[in-house]
Amino acid sequence: MRYFLIFILFLFNTYFISAQIFDVETIKFSGDNDKRINLVILSEGYQTAELPLFISDATSFSNNMFSQSPFLEYANYFNVYAIKVPSNESGADHPATATDTDETGITPVFVDTYFNATFDSHGQHRLLYYEIDENSANNTEVIINTVLANNFPTYDQALILVNSSEYGGSGGKFPMTYSGAWGANVAIHELGHSLFNLKDEYYPGDDLAGEAINMTQETDQNLVKWKNWLNINDIGIYQYTCLTGNCADWYKPHQNCIMEFIDKPFCSVCKEGIIEKIHDLVSPIDSYTPVSNTVSNSNFPLDFNLNLIKPNPNTLESSWTLNATNFATNVDAISLLETDLNVGSNNLTVVITDNTTLLNVTNHESIHVYTVTWTINNSSLGVKDIESDINNLSIIMYPNPSNSTANFKIESERDALLKVDITSLDGKKVKTVPISNYVTQQVDISNLSEGVYIANFYANNVLVASKKLVKI
Q: At the top level of its lineage, which domain of life is listed (predicted)?
């Protein structure tokens, strides 16, 4: 997900704000921007003389974020940058117009800031937002988009950090947080919404309620989307606490998650959702060698190497196959001898998966798989050439368990011959199902005996994933 802001759109809106270039400071650098999630922090309500304070505040936020799981484990997948946008005055507006609390006697405050940050937005005292309402916010988004287009167009998520000690924040396209004591946790909570599609675990209101990673109306233990986590780490099916609206119809996985209480960690279900989003956005394969090239009279052994973006601790697993035969596991480099190769075309494939315990995928719908394949053209005179290709796959299987049908879907970035073999635990193949890329294949399993089976997923005859399939 990269927000490439269209230059033509920028030109169209130049009447609103002239192009300005601001200093961009690196807060955290893990690797190439094209291969990382780029979080960009914008200053708001910091005057020019206060921009060093902004960098200090942004650094403190980054350090706090990457001290908390799962960002702690996946810190290598992120870059953090700060854009130093000066405001004419410090702080944020506080017009004392909130309707959710009594602000009688509070003197209204209005300050001249770049993104027009204000408390009391939409009538809520703690809602710190760019502008007082959505109509005005639409205009301010043009300003935000212009700043990003001019200074860091390839961002993944932008966050606005407000120079204020008063508690407040908001989510949305550009989450906003105050710079005070709990500001980092407010930002992390809001990023849970904006970047990772998590819902509040206090009732957010009927307009914001909806099926999501951590919110559902399903109460059946066999069907609820976080069924794989039930009774682990206090995960259950908990009804929302009712204050208004239809909250009694909705359920959450935990009772002490940061998506409800700002001083708590993420629950297991939210951690899993965040990690799966990270895997959606970034491949763990940073680079590899050799890339496609021409080899003339190459000397043996032939060396093949991976440079992986490793979680901490490292939970990535690798499986190497040569001509569809297992060759090596859990190594970042291998060497091939002349005797390992056939005369003609040879295929060497490495499959990378993440085996972190923060993902409980045994009964989960989807998994992510990453591959590199080298095609080695060998002759009696030596290796003539090596071609390489990289692929990312998402594999989905549902419902599980099932008594009648199972749905299989493989999303492959490259064209590939895709199939799934269903085998019994004793290794007997009971079904082979061809799969078309990006097409859900419904398979009748009603004639299978009750029990546990293994669904083996193949791309170009290479086993890329295995999942348990339960027939009930």
A: Bacteria
- Residue range 7-194 forms a domain whose CATH class is alpha beta
Neighbours of 435 (CB within 10 A): 22
State pLDDT tens for residues 205-240: 899 999 999 999 999 998 898 998 999 999 999 999
Residue 96 to residue 91: CA distance in whole angstroms:
15
Average pLDDT, the chain: 91
> pLDDT by residue (tens digit) across 374-392?
999 988 878 888 999 999 9
Q: Is 356 helix (H, G, I), strand (E, B) or coil?
A: coil
| 3-class state of residue 187 by DSSP | helix
Choose among 290, 210, 287, 294: nearest CA to 252. 210
The confidence score (pLDDT) of residue 4 equals 46
Give the chain's end-to-end CA distance (angstroms, integer). 39
Q: State the DSSP string of 258-301.
A: TTT-TTSPPPHHHHHHHHHHHHHH--SEEEEES-SEE-SSPPSS
Token readout for 63 is 């350090």
pTM of the model: 0.89
* Domain definitions of the chain by residue range: 7-194, 199-282, 283-471
Q: Measured between alpha carbons, how far is residue 427 from residues 408, 424, 467 in Å? A: 20, 5, 14
